[in-house]
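Allow me, if you will, to draw on your knowledge of protein folds for a short while. I have a record of one protein: its chain in single-letter code and its fold written as discrete structure tokens. Could you please explain, in whatever detail you think fit, how the structure tokens follow from the sequence? The record follows directly beneath this note:
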Amino acid sequence: YRRLHTGESRLSKFNQTERKAMLASYTKVLFVRDPFHRLIATFLQGMGINPSFSSFVQEVLDSGMHNGSAAWKPLVSLCRPCLIQYDYVVKFGFLRQELGHLLRRAGLPAGSLLPELTDSQVQWTYRWLSEQMFSELSAQQRKQLSHFYRWDLAAFPFSSSFLSD
């Protein structure tokens, strides 16, 4: 896009016509992950200063959407899927299958470029972790988390998420 090298990197810096032209010139891919899995990963990476997962979740809920970290903010607030027409949405847990498809669509040899991905092991591990972490939360925290991530759960197919109930 003609203004790509001007130093502007945020879409909000461009007017609507420029944004539309710029976005039309790219293949847009959005990678999504179950919001509860994102919370677990953030907690395990040590971004939460609290010793328990329940305390960490309370910190997330207390910070709200506007003051929270991008690591746990709802994806809908970060990626604007209602405003940007993404060409592909790739769901964590199906990376090998979906990335292979994307590479083939781009005319690249999918098999030789993909890293070794063990989606089934990752899914099993996160299922087990989710059960353990979810059991630490109070009924009120579970309800508040489901409400906090309601738009992500509505926009993306996370039917097996603990927060979908």
Summary: Strands lie at 29-32, 88-91. The CA atoms of residues 54 and 137 lie 5 Å apart. Residues 11-155 form one domain.
